[in-house]
Structure formats: C-alpha cells, structure tokens
Amino acid sequence: MNFFKNLSNRKKILFADISILFSAILWGGDYIVAKSALDVIPPGFMNAIRFSICALLMLIFLWNRIKKMSLSDIYVGVITGVMMFGGFIGQTTGLKYTTVGNNAFITSAYVIIVPFIAWFLTRERPKRNSFFAVFLTVLGIGFLTLQGSFSISRGDGITLIGAVFFGLELALLGKYAKKMDVLILAFLEAAVAGILFWIYAFSFETAPVMWDQNLILSMVYITFFGSVITHITVTVALKYTTSSRGAVLCATEALFGVFLAAIFLGERLYLNGWIGSALILAAVLVSELGIGLFKRKNI
User: Which residues contact 254 (CB under 8 A, 6 or more apart)?
Assistant: First the structure.
C-alpha cells in the first residue's frame, strides 16, 4: 500500500492494470488445473479449502489491520463475499459439466454487466471506449474459445449464473474498494465465501477420500496462485483503476487459459483463435488508450 502512495496517479493506474493482467494469467492456468481436480474433488469442498486457507493466511499476517475493521467494513465484506461465493460456485460447478472453452467464454460475459451495474451504483456513465472494449472482449473470447457449435447445456447455464454474480461483485468492489482498507475487504470476502462453501459442501456434496499427489499439487496451485495471490492483488488494484477497465483486463483470463491449454495440453489454436486473440488485444488497448488509438490523426 505504501508503494502505491509514492506513485503518481498515472503510474498507480498503470501498475494496477498490470497487476490485474498478471492475475488473469494465473486464473488462465486455474481453468486447466481445476478441470482436472474436479474429477476427484467436488466444487464446494475445493472452494471451501481454497478460500478458508486464503482467509486464514490473511488473518495471520494482517491481524493488526483486520482487528480495526468497522461495522461498515463487515457490511460491505459480507455482501461482496456472497457475490464471490455465487460466482465461484457457478463457475466451478459449470466447469464440471462443460468444456474449458465454454466455461471461460461464459464466465467472461460478466464484463458486459459491470459497466451497467457501476452506472447504477455511482450514477457515472461509463466512457464510450469502455462499452466498445467490452464488445470487443466478448466477441474476441467467443472467437477464441468456441471452436464448434454453441448451445446452452446444463454446465453452460450454471456458468452463466456465476458470471452474473461475478459482475455484481466486481461492480461493488469498484464502488467500495476506494473508500475502505482493501486488505480488510479481501479478508472478509474470502472468509464469508469460505464459510458459505463449507455449508454448501457438507449440505450437498460428499467429501473426497482419495488425496493423491496430483490432487494435492492441484490444490496448492488453486489455493495460493488461483486464490491468495490473485484475490489480494485484484482487490487492491481495483482501488486504483475503474471497474469497467478492470473487468476487461480480468476477462483476458480466457485468452491465457486457451494459450496455456495449447502449451500444456497440446490443444491447437485455429484461425478463430488467432482472430479472437487479436480482438482481445485490441480491447485491452481500447480500454487503456481509448478509441482514438485506432483513428487516423491529421498531420
């Protein structure tokens, strides 16, 4: 936090955007790891473990800050924690019943929702480039991840519900993260989501009984790289950038997911994939530099 205070506003925004993009890379790998882990561990237990450890680590290392939390902090943390629970249970349950490509694309659809929710919450109409960037992102991810026919299956429908919750969470973070200690907010979100996942898991799922080396390594990645690091990073970064731009940058996780699948799973990137990659890159540039980047300037 002190690091950010020593930066200019322009550098704060740039560093925040780079941080979110780094998190998107880790999330891209999370798709591949989680898909394999879900063959052994149910989504409720998987998320309960990841967010409980995340909350516990923050409680240990940030206790001096967390003990100062106010009732308003708790109120915001509970609301956003519930939204995060809804988002992850939809995403991971959906991933169990659909392909990585469909799951990544539908999850990224939350970028459509964020500017409108933020508009309702703050009464600030998003700039034109935010809407255009959202359009390019969704179109690009569609080209990138949907190589065959698209249909709303059981997994796709559950994933879509999760995307709505993610959109609500990101918009709420964009509004409240600037007004409170974001590390306290990150802790409360993880704690609330963890508690809800334990309740869900013991109510509807059967606990895993076989813990082999692959599952343990998968949970290490999912917990530390897919949760602890990314959760804290994005929550802090959203304090220094806009929710619309943050949504576009977060959505690039699908791009990285497909690229990592090509590297580690040998999946081939076809023409549609290259078109999608170019569209998503254009979306990030539009989000960062505006539509004017693509307009010819008179000399």
Answer: 28, 104, 105, 107, 108, 141, 144, 145
